[in-house]
Amino acid sequence: MTLSLSEESKNSNNIKVIKEVFEDSEFDVINKKVKFINSATLDIGNSILDIAKYLSEIKNFIKNKKWVELTDSGIFYLSGRTCRDLASAYQSWLFQSKIPDNILAELSARSLAKIGSLDSLKRKEIISRLLEGEIFTESDLTQFSSVKRKTNFDYNNQIKKAMDICHCLTDAQKLRNFKNIMIINIKQKEEIIMLKNRIKDLKKNRRN
Question: How far is it, in rounded angstroms, from Cα 27 to Cα 23?
């Protein structure tokens, strides 16, 4: 299998670290164990996603009260709370995410569910930071979710500011800005669709 540049870079760094810490005679043994650990970590992440997917599919067959009874019955090798968190996480965001397996392996089921409970903007920020290498504890996510965004929006004042800016721009500047405006408009439409879908899912879950 061909390694990506990031994988090659990581392997190169691993070799460098191992050589700095261990004796040359120990290199092969340690390197083999490191590779096994990293491979197993990816398997953990992949398994978490599969488990969450199948739990969510089972949940779709039964109503909420029966779902709690089923997950608390001991039929699964996981606690009822963990099963419900994984199913919730999959239905709210994991089903469409591209989170690497090694990152999934570092997040608890509760953390995954908490990410799914965030509004779309906060969730996108968390996912973006996860992809950049940050790892969040359950406590971090609880604090993050409690941060309130300013909701005051003076519509008339914002329109006036926009018109003032437009009047100051030359025709050439307006044309250059048009492309950016179109891109922003598309992104905002995407946000609206995500919010509508989120509301729809919440209403569906309440009915169940």
Answer: 7
Question: Which residue, 56, 78, 53, is CA-closest to 67?
Answer: 56
pTM: 0.59
Digit-coded pLDDT (tens) for 163-193: 766 666 667 666 666 666 777 778 778 888 8
- Distance CA(41)–CA(150), nearest Å, equals 40
d(CA 88, CA 59): 9
